[in-house]
Design goal:
The chain is α+β, with helices and mostly antiparallel strands. The chain has three domains: 84 residues, Uridine Diphospho-n-acetylenolpyruvylglucosamine Reductase, domain 2 (2-Layer Sandwich); 125 residues, 2-Layer Sandwich (Uridine Diphospho-n-acetylenolpyruvylglucosamine Reductase, domain 3); 82 residues, UDP-N-acetylenolpyruvoylglucosamine reductase, C-terminal domain (Uridine Diphospho-n-acetylenolpyruvylglucosamine Reductase, domain 1, Alpha-Beta Complex). It is 26% helix and 25% strand. A five-stranded antiparallel sheet has the order 6-7-13-11-12. Strands 1-2-5-3 form a four-stranded mixed sheet, with no helix packed on it. A three-stranded antiparallel sheet has the order 15-16-17. The protein is globular. The mean pLDDT is 96.
Amino acid sequence: MWDKTLDGKLYKLIPEERVLRDEPMYNHTTFKTGGKAIRYVKVNAINELVALLTLLSDNNSSSDYTVIGNGSNILVSDAGYYGLVIDTTGMTEINVDGDVISADAGVMLGKIAATALNNSLAGLEFASGIPGSLGGALCMNAGAYGGEMKDVIESVAVYDCGKSEVITLTNEAMDFGYRHSVVKDKPYIVLSATIRLHAGKHDDIEALMKDYNGRRRDKQPLEYPSAGSTFKRPEGFYAGALIEESGLKGYSVGDAAVSEKHAGFVINKGKATSTDIHRLISEVREKVYADTGVRLEPEVVFLGEF
């Protein structure tokens, strides 16, 4: 629950026009669902984010809060979120120095990939169509088409909420794994990162990006709101294939449905609620486990009470 006695201190750090009350989260998630956040703040620079996190740490984290980017991997309860949502998408600084790109956590992966292309830097083509921000991508080690963030990250600056300080982590210290990083295990908030690429030919980089994005359009239900792949890949299997084999392609709860195009995606066909989506995810997991003994684990993060 957000401690409303902190509002005065909050307004000293962030201009009041960027502190929203009872903000509908369906405006900030790619599922296009979700109730209201008691407080919603958009930070525009790393120093603002650090100051805000320090305020929360100094108050012993007495208020619930969460940090988001593009909202492309979260499902917010219809009842809303009773804490503070910190939106980092206003943190957009990006710089190129030789074969290294430095970017704030709020920069979209597509923009970073486009910057790499414009500078004829190869290695980030896989990320050009991932609809998330750098911070979220680092938290979950986002990847596609054989590439992952762990392949290109040199270092990551994070705020350690436990010690109220900014630290820099090496690639090794990030402990990257499948849809995992140390950021999921410790009280770290991503601030920025450096990405090391290598020189390539502009036309070759562009062709590979177009190939990957063409495959996405052909195979994924991009015409509907979703959070991308709903489930992690179970070891030795593919989530979409297991769901299809269980006869769940097209299965729906309200306007939430398993995509006919790709069974690994749960989509919002128009008027789905977060409750519909959550129930559908649960029923898919139960059916696949009953049929195969495989427990599907959601990639989607649930925010609020379900």
